[in-house]
Design goal:
alpha/beta, Elongation Factor Tu (Ef-tu), domain 3, Rossmann fold, 2 domains, seven-stranded antiparallel β-sheet, seven-stranded mixed β-sheet, 7 helices, 20% helix
């Protein structure tokens, strides 16, 4: 059930001059969240910004008894909303609507999970990784960014026993170039007999490349799109994307309702905005 609640900021961890992680006390949302779902957040009560903005739910927070008490958000300041979130103080409040959207579907052994994250596209993979760990699914995280200073929270995935492959565009950490290069190398070396499902979240151009690679190697791929959303409930039609679910006709769906997670084969990538 979707709820609209006032969340209390528990902490604001600055990761760099651009990135931070907010921890929010919202037990109503935390108890219902599935991997890959998101929130529509409004950091202040004033008119600026007027509309809420979508954020993937990063981690589920628990109290000392193990009960869900809140969630965290991975934020990069690039505009008004993200700037306000970067400066939120513990004890302050903000409005949160969620959990929203269609989640990822975790796989079970013997199928392996390969997660591909670009920048803040890392956010939905924390909850997915915990779900995969519960299933004891062998998992790999392919994580790319512009430079090494933009790679965060690797310890979360290391503690869960997830293999990590890194790439940076400037070569400061991991392989030099885009993360799709080591992904392609891994796909080319993976025998067809091995069951692998690819999960991806990041810029649309990266998602298209991952989808193309997965298809060329016969792998199922689930992508989380990052469309602009005005409401998160399907009312504004600002987040429509072209899909073809029945292999016969092309039509548009609202990614806040039908997604944000789609099978990559459902999407007409040529008509997506980049």
């Amino acid at each position: 059930m979707v709820v609209d609640v006032e969340a209390t900021v528990l902490s604001n961890v600055r990761l760099s001059d651009e990135y931070n992680v907010l921890e929010l006390e919202v037990p109503e949302i935390a108890a219902q969240t599935k991997p890959g779902q998101f929130l529509m957040v409004k950091p202040e009560m004033g008119p600026d910004p007027l509309l809420r903005r979508p954020f993937s739910i990063f981690e589920i927070l628990h109290d000392q008894k193990g009960n869900p008490k809140g969630i965290s958000l991975l934020n990069k300041r690039v505009g008004i909303t993200t700037e306000l979130l970067f400066h939120k103080q513990p004890g302050s409040h903000m409005m949160c609507l969620g959990p929203l959207g269609r989640p990822y579907k975790p796989v079970c052994p013997p199928t392996e999970a390969w997660m591909v994250a670009g920048g803040v596209g890392l956010a939905p993979f924390a909850t997915l990784s915990y779900a995969l760990a519960k299933h004891q699914t062998i998992s790999t995280l392919f994580y790319g960014a512009r430079h090494g200073g933009d790679l965060f929270y690797l310890d979360i995935f290391e503690r869960l026993g997830i293999r990590i492959v890194l790439a940076t565009e400037d070569g400061s950490r991991g392989e030099k170039g885009q993360i799709t290069a080591p992904l392609e190398n891994a796909l080319s070396k993976s025998p067809p007999s091995k069951d692998v499902v690819v999960y991806a979240c990041g810029p649309t151009a990266m998602l298209k490349k991952v989808a193309t690679l997965a298809e060329s190697y016969g792998r199922t791929c689930q992508v989380s799109v990052e469309q602009v959303m005005g409401c998160g409930l399907g009312g504004c039609y600002s987040c429509v994307i072209p899909v073809n679910k029945d292999s016969k006709s092309r039509h548009y769906v609202r990614s806040c309702i039908e997604g944000p997670v789609f099978l990559s084969e459902e999407i007409f990538w040529e008509e997506m905005d980049y």
